[in-house]
Write a structure and sequence with these properties.
By secondary structure, the chain is an alpha/beta fold. It folds into two domains: about 5-205, Spore Coat Polysaccharide Biosynthesis Protein SpsA, Chain A (Alpha-Beta Complex), CATH 3.90.550.10; about 210-305, no CATH class. It contains eleven helices and nine strands. Strands 1, 2, 3, 4, 5, 6, 7, 8 and 9 form a nine-stranded mixed β-sheet that branches. Helix 1 (about 20-25) links the parallel strand 1 (about 5-10) and strand 2. Helix 8 runs parallel beside helix 10 (about 285-295) and helix 9 (about 260-275) runs antiparallel to helix 10. The mean pLDDT is about 90.
């Protein structure tokens, strides 16, 4: 039996409200051959108190300023001694048998370097609000990650060989997407496990809540990658970039409308009409005009579903 050792890296910053649940989800795993490495960016809440509580269960932890999540992840990777590694953020959790599921797959597919699985979405009370089982989309110019990040990082398990060969994360907010593109560019594909591996928590201070910033970062990664590969002029790439740019505009307008400054919303809409007149053909844009001029009520989806808001997550330094 292979019995792989897992290095679980948990970057943390002011997530004392959730980090104990994250730790418990790891130390209570049915599979025990792992090490837990926690890199805290200098939290000022009760995080350190919790880390001290579980000191004997944590292989290594530190609380010190860092340059953002990518830097914390790389610090953790430098301490890793396992055969495989994962990044589980301090507000996310593993499902009870996650490591056992992964170990069994590694046993069956020992030459595979990259595994991923299904994800549950949970709220701040740890209630499951949705679930997602990844399915590889049709490649664009040979890349399945060019148009979207179709796997969820807490479910991802990578061979330590990949870290030794390709290094750690680059300085991006969506450092995972940039890493997946790097792996795919080197002909490495993820093996999708049809079981749920982790729970991704969505709340006010998680990065996923700031959808405008994430979408802008998605655009930057795609532009950087396609420029580096010399494929930025391909029509498929231009189409993807155009779609992402329109999505940024849409989210900024919707965020403005969901606020209380109607005049600013109208100015923003008029500005984008002048810059991008073809937006007038978009149904969502026409709906935005109606909302901006005639206001929205409390039952409007922009109020009930919520729009991207800035978070206090550990964004990378500029």
């Amino acid at each position: 039996m292979i019995n792989p050792k897992f290095s679980i890296i948990t970057p943390s910053f002011n997530q004392g409200q959730y980090i104990e649940e994250t730790i418990l989800s790891i130390i209570n795993q049915s599979y025990k051959n792992y090490e837990l490495i926690i890199i805290d960016g200098g939290s000022t809440d009760n995080t350190v108190e919790i880390l001290k509580k579980y000191n004997t269960e944590i292989e290594y932890w530190v609380c010190e300023p860092d340059k953002g999540t990518y830097d914390a992840d790389n610090k953790g990777l430098a301490k890793a001694t396992g055969d495989y590694w994962m990044v589980v953020n301090s507000d996310d959790t593993l499902t009870p048998d996650a490591l056992e599921i992964l170990a069994n797959k590694i046993e069956s597919y020992p030459d595979t370097k990259w595994f991923c699985g299904g994800i549950n979405y949970i709220n701040k009370k740890s209630t499951i609000t949705g679930t997602y089982q990844p399915t590889s989309p049709k490649p664009v110019l040979g890349y399945t990650f060019l148009a979207e990040c179709w796997i969820s990082h807490p479910t991802v398990c990578l061979s330590i060989d990949l870290y030794y060969k390709f290094g750690g994360f680059d300085k991006y907010h969506m450092m995972d997407l940039a890493y997946w593109l790097k792996l795919e560019d080197n002909k490495i594909k993820p093996f999708v496990i049809d079981k749920t591996i982790a729970n991704l928590r969505l709340h006010q201070n998680c990065k996923s809540n700031d959808r405008i910033k994430l979408t802008e970062e998605h655009l930057r990664i795609i532009q950087d990658f396609t420029n580096k590969k010399g494929i930025q002029s391909k029509k498929e790439v231009k189409s993807i970039i155009c779609f992402i740019k329109q999505l940024i505009i849409q989210r900024k307008i919707h965020q403005s409308i969901s606020g209380s400054d109607r005049l600013n919303s109208i100015k923003l809409i008029l500005l984008h009409v002048l810059k991008h007149p073809l937006l007038m053909r978009k149904r969502w844009f026409l709906g935005a005009i109606k909302r901006a001029f005639f206001s929205i009520n409390s039952s409007d989806p922009l109020k009930t579903v919520g729009i991207s808001n800035p978070s206090n997550a550990n964004w990378n330094e500029n």
